[in-house]
Amino acid sequence: MTTESLMTKPESARRVAPSVLVGIAAFALVGLYVLASSITLGLWTSLGPGAGLFPFAMGALLVAMSAVWLVQELRRPSAKGEGVDRGVVISVTVSLVILASVMDLLGFQLSMFLFLLYHLKIRGRRTWVSSLVIALLGSVGAFYAFNNGLNVALPVSSLAPLNVIGF
Predict the structure, then answer these.
(1) Which end of the chain is more exposed for a tag (fewer CB within 10 A), N or C?
(2) pLDDT tens, 41-94?
(3) Is residue 30's pLDDT more than 80?
């Protein structure tokens, strides 16, 4: 036997970390809140799906995923992690705040394109080609899917030159 094998606990003796349980509970609570809120929007209308159907489905999915995560942790607790990379948390939070701040000015397509490009190229270290293609397809595709497919208007640019070319 090695010293390492004597020092580590068997998998069955490990417990779920309290921080993991807090994370699971937070996701489940957000899912339950979305479920409750979406019901007030109406799940179905005489014309078809109501405004609350999509959020209801997402809330239900979040609650279900939280339950699956809890079962997985109870069966086999995850190893103790190294902690949170604060740089990643800060960069994602700041980029989301910037995205929300410039969306009315630049419009959804350009704002989302820049947001995705930053996260793909700078944070994810992808190649320029894949970053540009994914960012373009993601931003323009989501815009047209919401505007044309779901009839949900996303912000367009308030700047005249960008608005003229369709942003």
Answers:
(1) N
(2) 888 888 888 888 999 999 999 999 999 999 999 999 987 756 778 888 899 999
(3) yes
The per-type count for the chain, helices as H runs and strands as E runs, is: 7, 2
Burial call 85-109: b when 16+ CB within 10 Å, e when fewer = eeeeeeeeeebeeebeebbeebbbb
The Cα 96–Cα 105 span in angstroms is 15
Q: What is the pLDDT of residues 128-160, one digit of tens each?
A: 999 999 999 999 899 888 888 878 888 888 887
Query: What are the beta bridge partners of residue 44?
Result: 49
67: its two tokens: 């339950």
Residues whose CB is less than 8 angstroms from the CB of residue 27 and which lie 6 or more positions away in sequence, other chains included: 62, 65, 66, 69
Query: What span, in angstroms and rounded, lies between the C-alpha atoms of 151 and 68?
Result: 33
